[in-house]
Specification:
Elements (H helix, E strand, L loop, with lengths): L1 H26 L2 E6 L5 H12 L4 E7 L4 E6 L6 H10 L11 H5 L13
The structure holds copper (II) ion.
């Protein structure tokens, strides 16, 4: 009996993570976080709109407290590079990818990088 009691927690400890991982690969989506230069709600709407237009993106959300963009995507249809490129094309920085200059110039004053948080 004592042996079984000892074995049970070990069993859960090793089996549970592998079960969770199996579930994750079943969904066939991945999540990435991208640091953007979003400042306000308008930035959020623009970035999410641009990223959602990328084929293979399931879900995207900009967190305005740290300007981080969460993207859930299908790795067989798109890549982090393509997602970052879409953010840059909308006029915002995406990690090491800098914003497209023309798109950035077209942003309203309140969305420029040196604008105050509002
Ligand atoms: Cu803005």
């Amino acid at each position: 009996m004592k042996k079984i009691k000892l074995f049970a927690p070990l069993f859960v400890l090793f089996l549970l993570p592998s079960m969770l991982m199996a579930q994750k690969s079943d969904k066939k989506t991945e999540v990435i976080y991208i640091q953007t230069s979003a400042i306000c709600g308008e930035c959020k709407t623009k970035i999410e709109g641009a990223v959602n237009a990328v084929k293979g993106v399931k879900k995207s959300e900009v967190n305005l407290t740290d300007s981080k963009l969460m993207v859930e995507y299908s790795p067989s249809k798109t890549s982090p590079e393509k997602i970052r490129a879409a953010v840059a094309a909308a006029g915002y920085d995406a990690d090491e990818v800098t914003a497209d200059a023309a798109a950035y110039q077209a942003l309203p004053m309140c969305c420029k990088k040196d604008a105050k948080k509002h």
